[in-house]
Amino acid sequence: MRTAAVLAVLLGTAGVAVAAFDGELERLLRTPEPVVAPSFGIVAAALARHRRARRMGGLLAAVALFAGVYTAATALVLHGAGSSSPVHALAGWLTGWTWVPALGLIAVVLPAVVPDGRPLGGWWRRLPTASYAVVACGSVLAMVAPRRTTFDPDLPNPLGVPALDAVVAPMGLGLVALAVLLSLAGLVSLVVRARRATGVERRQVAWFGYGVAGTLVATALAPSEVRALAVLLVPGAVLVAATRYRLYDIDRLVNRTAVAAVLLAGGAVLYAAVAGWAAVVLGDGSSATSFAAAFAVALAFHPARIRVQRVVDRLLLPERLDPRQLELELADVARRAAGPAQALQDSVELLRRRLHAGAVAVHPAGASGRPALARAGTAVGATVGATVQVPLLQHDEVVGRLDLVARDAAGETLVHNPAVQAAVVGPLTAALHASALAADLESSRESIVAAREEERRRLRRELHDGLGPQLAAITMTLDTARRSLGTARLERADALLEAAVEQSRTAVEDVRAIVAGLRPPALDELGLEGALRSAGPGVLVDHDSSTRITIRGRGPLVGLPAATEVAAYRIAQEAMANAVRHAGADLVEVELLQDAEGLRLLVSDDGRGFDQQVAAPGVGLASMRERAAELGGSFSVSSSPGGGTRVEAVLPDRGADR
Hints:
Strand order of the largest sheet: 7-8-9-11-10
Helix content: 55-70%
Mean pLDDT: 78
Largest sheet: 5 strands, mixed
């Protein structure tokens, strides 16, 4: 097939080149074959790579080969006009019949087998066979007809049978009538196929129908030069239908073509009417006649376009979807919903109805196994290629994915429409982000309540199991010592009082431990910078004491909320411990800066570092990140193998304790 296609292109190109050299190109282009040969050949070669389109590629290659032979033979006839050589005679004989299969395969066979080279089922299967038979009979009749060559009247058909002269005309008319009937039947089968087809096949048939319609209109109305070029619409439509049909909206193309045709016809009528009226009023020779007509057309164009567009939309796209209107509907749904989660669910329900979708789902970013946050409909029975996945981005970061599964052909057209996808991404991303924020807020509230109750339980346990028994023991010891003093047992009383003092010390230490668990005492005694200076040496215990820790504060570092001080202290403490224990750092630098934004904490070291793309975050990093997030701040870590680690946290000063 590819060899035949390449040969057809070469023959067609060679024929055009010879005709151009002889100055006969205008005569050659009076027939469409010089355009058919290279265009159909190129498309046939392109379709050879597509397994499902090889049948169509073979048919187009046959058309191109016959057209190429006709083009080359015609060019030779024009080049050697008046010659009696065998080559000239053979070329004349080829021009007499090769146009028949080239034209017949296009007009009679092609409509019956679009888009995959196979006919419809049932009795329609006989249509291509009958079409091939008519084309073959017509070709044989043209081979042996005793007629002279069109481009050289002095050159007779070398294989012409004079005995057939009387029957050639009636047989030819009969075959032409059969060809017309079969061509009409092929067009009817094309309509039937379009009505039966769904999704991909319907768009393929629509593209071919658009190309055929354009060719017929150009053939009927355009001059001969344009008619030859109009044939390009057929192979172009076949190529798009077989390979790139999803990239182009055929419904929108037909819509715009209809609008343009109506406006062109209406503009011509208006121009002629106004020009005639102006000629009567101003005189035939007035220069203002054409200006008045053009001005009237320009004045009426925009309102006419709007009205014509509305009429065409109602006729061709009764369920036309305006992406802008859909975006407004999604915004209205989100505004009327009871909450972010309900807004997301209502949005996918609206999309399922408006996009003719069998299923619509919104998934969060992350692992593919995570359940959908909102879902409407089911994907059961969806056809291959009917599913579209659209990423949802927030600040150039993927926060989720929208899955659209078409229910029918109209739905498949809509879900693949880039304008529709662009219209729904914004509202859905906002709804998804709001739902995620609401879920995070609810989770934070639950975590706060759980942490508060856990802390209360811990304090109750510490007080009940630790401090309570100690105070009870002190009371009992003092009571026993008092009785011993009453009986003058001074040594016994002294021992009991000493035990009570020791118990009191232990109780005080337990109270301090409980208080230290609530808030590091060093923060109240030394301030944030002083507390970190005192805590720094503590992380060096049981580790290389050669590690140096420097702590530098800039700004007043006063008036900070208690929560900010505790978070900064814990983050810095954890970062210093990680630098000493895991990074093997020789130098750890801690910098504190208080400015208008709040408190900025920076901990950097010269340790071994790690690869952030490979290493999984540990408990320490997660804890530091959560402490910063609880205050509405930010947290970042940057590191590279051998390049040390840099931990930065920004804790806003919200004045919580002021």
